Fold each of these.
Amino acid sequence: MVFGPIRRHPVLAAGLVVAGVAAVNRSQESRLDPVGWRAPDPPAMAGALAAGEELSGLDTVVSVDGPEDVAFDADGRLYTGAEDGRMYRTVDPVDDETTDATVEVFAETDGRPLGLTFEGEDLLVAGTGAGLLSVDTDGEVTTLAASADGRPINFADDIYVADDGTVYFTDATVHGRFEDELWELGDTGRLLAYDPDSEETSVELEGLGFANGVVPGPDGESLLVTETSRYRITQFFVDGDRAGEHEPFAEALVGFPDNIDTDGDGTYWVAIPSLRADILDTLHRYPWVIRQLGKLPDSATEIDIEPYGLVVRFDEDGNVVESLHDPDGDVFGVTSATPHDGALYLGTLFGSDVKRYPLS
């Protein structure tokens, strides 16, 4: 459930990459250990992906700094996190006419809240630098999981609670900077499972490319996990004859997939915070160049993306059936599209507004 801010840096301009690499001290150690990859061609922006202006001019429901995801309690109040580590909620319930709602601080965390979901009256929170958290009705924060299989949970990202109470959640990357995962393609993301009875956390699936959103699959026996750095959605089977297996659900996506949600109609809403960055797809073919860039300051590998608002709906077979756009980028960097009472509530990691898109 994370993608970085829009940045423009000259070393990423195609004409200056060679110059940047030439200036590197070849004996210097690189922080990047990339693999080579030829990214699949993106689909054409046509048919169900044809650009429109569906997301233009949407109402602002809540304003905080970086509301990456949202959740609603039984009373209809909206909860979201912010870059400062605080959890906020609306003072009053939210309906289809709410705009610019007043918020209050609900809790404070030691990380940055990302994915949110309610389990009963408690709010479960996945956060960078914090792991898996539970927040009770009084705002008291309890850490449920901070490591798994001897590795710290560095980048807890999204959450799904199964009917048996198991809390599935993603740990996106081993890196502190998400950009390093996108450049390296080390596939260090994991799908984890927290057992509330034993209070233990297990690793269910490794080798994921920036493991991000997680949601139940269409067959009742699997989960869908978005892999941001690999432009795909993976289906992982947790029950049945295929338990433990995984396979692609949708590949060669038009951009970087973030959160994935369903409203129970058999389709899936996937937030796309950015279309692909051409420089990434090009340089992945030349890992030696990326290794040299890893010797430069962090700012040299900030990723140049253009503001574009996009949410894509998939059917149960992984086909695109609808897309919502804002080509002007007034709504941009959409990291979550949460269905609630006939509307989608759109979160963003590096904007400041939760927007509402009416579904009917």
Note: The chain has one domain: 10-358.
Amino acid sequence: MLNATWLETFTTLCEIGHFTQAAERLNMTQPGVSQHLRKLEQQVGQGLISRLGKSFTLTPAGEAVFELGLSRRVEEKSLRDAIEADDWNAGPVHIACSGSFALLLYPMLLAWMRAAPDLSVHLEAAPQAKILAGLLEGSFDLGVLGADPDHARLEATHLGREELCLVLPADAVDMPVSFSDLEARGFIAHPDGYGYADELLRLNFPDDYPGADQLSVRGSVNQIGQIPAPVAKGVGYTLLPRSGVEAFADKASLSIVQLPKRRWHELWLVVRRGSRLSARARYARDMIEEAAVQLR
């Protein structure tokens, strides 16, 4: 790699064609310009100019290096323009979170995208391990995790927490629920549901709960947005983080039953440590924080 400072000195010298005037333009001394030229020639391994009294001409190598210097200026100007513009309504932003939180967040992101044609928002509902790996490798700008990753290359901010909810139809009788009541209704299962059952049902029905693999299953759904749909129609019960309930279009047809012992999932906003977030990523961060407030 050619030294950028020596290359810029040489490029300015070629443009002006005079050592003294080039030194004035660069706020240097003439010997300083000559020194930069010699060091650049040493890096290239060839002479770059042929002196003719007080003037000079470029050697073939000098012509090539001069062209490189001009192109570097163009590239650096483009970079500076891109950095200085940093329009929060333009460019890509990549976010990863749980499926339930994505359902809550995405309508907010859609409204932003509709108002910003040059914006490209990529939201991925992913397992915790994939979110963590993506943050570390730089494929995600922002991630929402269920715990502080406590990693040297990551920085985490606590957003709050959301409750793991027992979800029944809206017309469910407002009275203590027994495990036999739930078994009679049947479980609307989903990929995360069995883990949620081990968390919440075992906590509240320790004497009756036989384990997730022994639950009476009424049906199963693997599309997270549709998990509450059968419950809303009076079929079965399910278990979801509150964000999955709040994002459901017909949530008025659902009821969240408070069990004696409650279970919460933490929410942490995670970014790469020391990274300067773009304006659009900062705005997306604000939206994530706003979505998390809805769960308190």
Note: The mean pLDDT is 92.
